[in-house]
Amino acid sequence: MNFDFFIDLSVSGPGCKTGISQLSALQETGSRSLALLAHIGALSIDAIRQKSDRLEHKRFGHADALAEAIGFDIADHYTPDVPTYFSRVSSPQIVTTLCEAKGVPAAPAWSRMKKAELAVIAAREIAGTRWLPEVLRAIGDTVEEAA
C-alpha cells in the first residue's frame, strides 16, 4: 500500500488545497484506513534495546503490551544460531545459554571446547527449545517461560 498521500500531507503548509483534499483519505473506512493506522502505529513503536537503556523504560512495557495484545511471540520467528547469536557472544555466555535452555549443569567438556565447536553444539541443542537471549524476552518473561 502506498502512503505517499500521508507523507505529502505532513509537508504541505496551512491553507494548501492539496493537503486539505488529502484529509479525505483519513475518512476512509475498510482495509485502507486499517492499513494506514497500522503503518502509523508501526512507525511510533521503538522497542530496540540499546546498551545504555534500562529495562524499566516505559517504551519497552508499551512494546511488550502491544506484542501480547496482538499475540506476537518472537520465538515463533527467531531461533538463535551460530551466525546470528553464538558467534557474537563469549564462550562462557554460550555455556550459560546451554545451561538455561536445557536446564542442566555445565558439562566439563564445554569449558575446554573451542568457541566455534561450542557454538555449533549450542545451536543444535537450543533448536526447538524456544529459548531466547535476554534482550529478546518480554520484560516479565523468566528463563523457565522462555525455555
Oligomer: single chain
Structural class from helices and strands? Answer: mainly alpha
Catalogue the unreliable spans. 5-12
Mean pLDDT: 79
- The topology string of helices and strands comes to HHHHHHHH
Total of helices? 8
How many angstroms does the end-to-end distance come to?
38 Å
* Most strands sheet: none
Percentage of helical residues?
A: 40-55%
Q: How many whole angstroms does the radius of gyration measure? A: 22 Å
Number of strands: 0
Question: What is the general shape?
Answer: elongated
* Percentage of residues in DSSP E strands: under 5%
Give a structural overview.
The longest helix has 14 residues, at 31-44. The two termini are 38 Å apart. Among the domains are: 1-44, no CATH class; 79-131. It is 50% helix and 0% strand. With 147 residues, the chain is mainly alpha-helical. The chain has helices spanning 4-11, 17-22, 31-44, 58-70, 91-102, 108-112, 115-126, 143-146.
